[in-house]
Design a protein that fits this description.
With 88 residues, this protein is mostly helical. Helices cover 80% and strands 0% of the residues. It contains four helices and no strands. It is flat, with a radius of gyration of 22 Å.
Length: 88
């Protein structure tokens, strides 16, 4: 009996997922982009709940130390974007 119930839930879930994907694909692109932005913003607001791995912490420390040594603040985003656009 458990297998039948589990199978029914899985099939129902797959159907719901297919239905959701179909509905999402029918939205205009600008609405889908807005939905993604809202989803990303909701993830970003919860970012403190995502723990960093030791490797990520080490990388952040490495970058901070490199900045403290050379003091290089990098360049403006607008400069980087202009350079990228020129290469396209």
């Amino acid at each position: 009996m458990r297998i039948c119930t589990l199978w029914a839930k899985l099939v129902s879930r797959e159907f719901e997922d297919d239905l959701m994907n179909t509905k999402l694909s029918q939205l205009p692109v600008d609405e889908r982009i807005k939905l993604v932005e809202e989803l990303w913003d909701s993830i970003a607001s919860d970012q403190r709940t995502l723990p960093l791995t030791q490797e990520q912490k080490s990388e952040l420390d490495r970058r901070l130390n490199a900045y403290e040594v050379d003091g290089n603040r990098g360049r403006l985003a607008t400069e980087s974007i202009m350079e990228i656009r020129q290469k396209l």
